Amino acid sequence: MARKVMLLVFLVVLIGTSAVEGNSLEICPEMELLAGVLSQTSWIEDRGPEGAGNEYFRALQAFFAPYKDHRAVSLAEKLTKQGFAYDAPPAFICHLSPLPELDLVYEYSSYLVLRAKGRDALEEFRIALAELAAEADFLSFYADWEPYLEETLAPYRVDFRLGLVERWLQDFFGWTPVEFHLIVTPSMFPGGGYGATAIDATGNRIAFQIIREFGTSEGRPEFPTGVSLENLTVHELGHAFVNPSLEAYPKGTKQLRPLLWPVREIMASQAYSSTANFLNEQVIRAMEVLAARDLFAAGVDISILENHERCGFYLTRFVLAQLEYYQANREEYPTFMEFVPYLFDQLERYQAENSSLQARIFSLFLR
């Protein structure tokens, strides 16, 4: 079911044409509703902009200020305090229909239910958001700002090679989600993005990319451009491929907990505190290096590799070598999901050779 405010992008193999360049980035009023509510909570302390924020965000925050005692804001604060933060709130919105209904379109994933500590909490929040949007007439506020936001996005759509990125991901992984949605969030910070996946009633996967504003502008909202935007898209859409591939082998993930131990603190600071999240990110970051070799200028791949290592992803070179083996043996591994058991075997060997007894013992307490 297509969202009214987002571009439904089909891959080449599904419609026989490339993505329409220059019309691939959209702003979602439902996501802006969420951001406005969060701006009235303690979320703003950790995920807010530097200074006052861009001029649109300031208007959004001021619009919702009279509703700071609304049930939607109270529930958002409660969820935030429970750890329902970072990627979880935007992923929640990706499961809902357009305003004003804000119905549940895609059933909540077990991941979201776990993050919210129960499905009932998600449903209560969804209903409260819809009620607040109606009471505040949020859609009228958004309609007033929509021309400004469209004008803001225009330069970022120029030369954004979404079709090229999509084709690379499809070819590399050997399969594809049926839909892609790229959502730009001028009132979520600071830079970077999130990846989210929803599953429809027939089992098809829908991939979402959420692109955050830099958080440093006090004028128009600012976002990544060019290679930075394309690399971010490789990363965030990559979650729609990597996460389900690794999740198909939960036993393998559990056996690799000692690999998280050496970087458990730096990973926790980046919201990758579980072994599954760490491994998903580690594989994606190695995959980024391969994508950069194929899509970007010489040397970009090295820069990306070194940056990931600085961020604590110490297995990037090792996983990269395994992915190179996968690329060279696609006849044996037509899809990445079929390659995952081999990848897990190699990671187990690395773990056996490099993990200390302390890491093995204490990793039993990790997720």
Q: Major beta sheet, specifics? A: 4 strands, mixed
Estimate the global geometry from the Cα principal axes.
Answer: globular
Measured between the Cα atoms of the first and last residue, the distance is 35 Å
Cα-based radius of gyration, to the nearest Å: 21 Å
Helix share, percent: 55-70%
How many extended strands?
4
How many helices does DSSP assign? Answer: 18
Helix/strand/pairing category: alpha/beta
User: What is the H/E order?
Assistant: HEHHHHHHHHHEEEHHHHHHHH
Q: Which stretches of 5+ consecutive residues score pLDDT under 50?
A: 1-23
- Percent of residues in beta strands? 5-15%
Task: Count up the domains.
Answer: 2
State the strand order across the main sheet.
1-2-4-3
Compute the average pLDDT: 92
Assembly type of the shown chains? Answer: single chain
Summarize the structure.
About 55% of the residues lie in helices and about 5% in strands. The protein is α/β, with parallel strands linked by helices.
Plain-language structure description:
The chain is α/β, with parallel strands linked by helices and 367 residues long. It has 2 domains: 12-212, no CATH class; 249-365, no CATH class. It is built from 18 helices and 4 strands. The chain has a 4-stranded mixed β-sheet, with helices on both faces. A hairpin with a 5-residue loop joins strand 3 (193-199) and strand 4. Helix 5 runs antiparallel to helix 8 (119-136) and helix 14 (275-295) packs antiparallel against helix 15. The protein is globular.
